[in-house]
């Protein structure tokens, strides 16, 4: 009888130790990272948890799909994985990976709209992005989809960085960029102090010219002041970027006298006031500079010709002509 009791005790202890060992191994399996490098997994809609667990094993992220499925069964029986693209970091444990799949913590990509891009440049870069789903919608279809009451999409998207996920389309990103442009422009217009402009769209047009004239934030407000002063005095803006935009593919790379005399609706050497549309996509700072022009007496400016991108500003034509001579002298050396 005593031998039988000893046997039962030994059997119980052995069984308990085995259970504890299995539990320890299972716990170690789910809390210890097995991934040596960062990897990406794409979960297709309708994929089962077992399919995903097998794929994770094939990727070397986990050792045992059974242990992972057991974790789901006992600890998250009502949870379901969500489709999408997920980043698996080298220090992620199997349990944290699965939790990310349950919670839908998908991988975000970024797309940056560069200040000064034209809409054509934006669309080409957007549709060539490897993760963006290109819809190939026409300009008129995009205008209809976004509810824009204009004939041109130029300037209608804020230059900014946007987050998106795999599967998002070009129109998804364009929608976000257009909505942010509207919000930014309308807010700036409400608090702005440029009385020479009639509406937010004119502010956007002016902002686009400022955007192309300088990349220096502190000069944008000064240049805005120059253009505002010229508009007040009914002087033509005489902005080279508007000439270049109006020429389109006919621009040779250097502005000529014929270019300045070209009769097109964007050539501010030939037209009064602002051109009919923006000439590029703008950032927030250019919008703010358009509605908050610097209060100065300058009527002219020209590049210094130095590598810093700065300009000479003048109040008289005589001073401006001397600045032009200095610019020409600087670019010779």
Protein architecture, described:
The protein folds into 3 domains: 30-103, Dna Ligase, domain 1 (2-Layer Sandwich); 109-185, no CATH class; 196-331, no CATH class. It is 50% helix and 8% strand. It is built from 13 helices and 6 strands. The strands form 3 sheets. The chain has a two-stranded antiparallel ribbon with strand order 1-2. It has a two-stranded antiparallel sheet with strand order 3-4. Strands 5-6 form a two-stranded antiparallel sheet. Strand 5 (300-303) and strand 6 form a beta hairpin. The longest helix is centred in the N-terminal third of the chain and has 30 residues, at 2-31. Residues 16-28 have low confidence and may be disordered.
Whole-number tally of structural domains: 3
Radius of gyration: 31 Å
**What is the CA-CA span between the terminal residues?**
109 Å
What is the helical fraction, as a range of percent? Answer: 40-55%
Neighbour order of strands in the largest sheet: 1-2
Q: Count the E strands.
A: 6
Strand content: 5-15%
Order of helices and strands: HEHHEHEHHEHHHHHHEEH
Helix tally equals 13
Q: Report low-confidence residues grouped into runs of 5 or more.
A: 16-28
Average predicted local confidence, pLDDT: 87
What does the main sheet amount to? 2 strands, antiparallel
Structural category is mainly alpha
| Coarse shape | elongated
Brief account:
The protein is mainly alpha-helical and 333 residues long. The chain is built from 13 helices and six strands. The protein has helices at residues 2-31, 49-58, 65-75, 94-103, 119-127, 139-146, 170-191, 200-213, 217-232, 240-247, 257-260, 284-291, 317-331, and strands spanning 39-43, 84-88, 108-112, 161-165, 300-303, 311-314.
């Amino acid at each position: 009888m005593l031998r039988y009791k000893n046997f039962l005790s030994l059997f119980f202890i052995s069984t308990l130790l085995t259970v504890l060992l299995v539990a320890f191994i299972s716990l170690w399996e789910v809390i210890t990272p097995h991934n040596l490098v960062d990897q990406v997994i794409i979960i297709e809609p309708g994929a089962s948890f077992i399919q995903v667990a097998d794929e994770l094993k094939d990727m070397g992220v986990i050792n045992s799909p059974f242990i992972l499925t057991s974790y789901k069964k006992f600890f998250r029986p009502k949870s379901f994985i969500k489709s999408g693209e997920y980043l698996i970091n080298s220090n992620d444990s199997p349990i944290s990976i699965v939790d990310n799949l349950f919670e839908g913590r998908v991988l975000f990509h970024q797309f940056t709209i560069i200040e000064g891009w034209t809409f054509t440049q934006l669309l080409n870069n957007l549709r060539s992005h490897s993760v963006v789903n290109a819809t190939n919608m026409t300009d008129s279809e995009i205008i209809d989809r976004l509810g824009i009451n204009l004939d041109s999409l130029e300037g209608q998207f804020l230059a900014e960085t946007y987050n998106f996920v795999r599967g998002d389309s070009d129109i998804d990103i364009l929608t976000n960029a257009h909505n942010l442009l509207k919000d930014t422009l309308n807010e700036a217009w409400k608090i702005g102090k440029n009385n020479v402009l009639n509406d937010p769209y004119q502010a956007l047009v002016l902002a686009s010219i400022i955007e192309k004239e300088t990349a220096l934030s502190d000069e944008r407000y000064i240049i805005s002041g120059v253009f505002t002063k010229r508009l007040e005095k009914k002087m033509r803006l005489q902005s080279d970027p508007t000439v270049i935009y109006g020429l389109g593919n006919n621009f040779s790379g250097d502005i000529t006298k014929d270019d300045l005399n070209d009769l097109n609706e964007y050539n501010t050497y030939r037209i009064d006031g602002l051109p009919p549309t923006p000439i590029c996509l703008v950032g927030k700072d250019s919008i703010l500079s358009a509605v908050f022009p610097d209060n100065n007496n300058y009527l002219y400016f020209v590049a210094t010709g130095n590598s810093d991108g700065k300009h000479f500003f003048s109040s008289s034509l005589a001073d401006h002509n001397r600045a032009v001579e200095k610019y020409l002298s600087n670019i010779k050396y």
